[in-house]
Specification:
It contains two helices and 15 strands. By secondary structure, it is mostly beta strands. The chain binds 5-phospho-D-arabinohydroxamic acid and zinc ion. The site of 5-phospho-D-arabinohydroxamic acid has 13 residues, from strand 11 and strand 12.
Length: 196
């Protein structure tokens, strides 16, 4: 971890930071139960545990006042008709926001609050997205061939709650219908008020 001000480069075509501390890779096997078409996921897993996304992090102390930051790269592809996506999460400290800046590719951010309010915003190069405090977020690559690359930054004390999304999913799924991106209801999702 650096103890003097630092810079790094984000260069096309890959935008992998010129220096980073942590490289996380998430594969298909980490997404069991998250895709609507479980048979398609099982079938794909028989062939290969495909890499869905890479995250490159610059390490900072996980405390208020610091800003955690890095690059997320979601690769193109689908499970059934549902696009490759991140796991998605709430921040453990719910009242913490996040900024995303899209550097490459085409995609969307799927978001929702604990009360079930939802939003989907487009991501494309040059686009900045402010994810409000309290909103869970998942990035989805809706492009055919290109990676979806975003720079992200969020408070050091935010933490991650993956469990709520793992259990209930997001309210909306992003799928391909007749060659186009479509936002559909998640059949697995239940209103928070009716959850056990
Ligand atoms: C991002 C995400 C990153 C990977 O840094 O962590 O895009 O997504 P998952 O964490 O959902 O696998 C972020 O939102 N941090 O808070
Ligand atoms: Zn986050």
């Amino acid at each position: 971890m650096k103890d003097v001000p630092y810079t790094f480069q984000l260069e096309p075509p890959d935008f992998i930071p010129s220096t980073y501390d942590n490289h996380i890779q998430r594969r298909l096997s980490a997404m069991r139960g998250q895709y609507a078409d479980e048979a398609a996921l099982a079938q794909m897993l028989e062939q290969e545990d495909t890499l869905l996304y890479d995250v490159y992090e610059l390490r900072r102390p996980e405390i208020a006042g610091e800003i955690l930051h890095g690059i997320s790269i979601v690769h193109p592809g689908k499970v059934g008709d549902e696009y490759f996506m991140t796991k998605g999460h709430f921040h453990s400290v719910l009242e913490t926001a996040e900024i995303y800046y899209c550097l490459k590719g085409q995609g969307v951010m799927v978001m929702e609050t604990p009360e079930g309010e939802w939003a989907v915003e487009a991501l494309y190069p040059g686009r900045v997205l402010y994810v409000l405090p309290r909103w869970a977020h998942r990035s989805v690559n809706t492009g055919c061939e290109e990676d979806l690359v975003t720079f992200f930054a969020y408070p050091g004390n935010a933490g991650h709650d993956y469990g709520t999304i793992e259990t209930h999913g997001f309210r909306k799924l992003v799928v391909e219908r007749d060659g186009q991106m479509a936002i559909v209801d998640n059949p697995r999702w239940q209103p928070p008020s009716s959850r056990a």
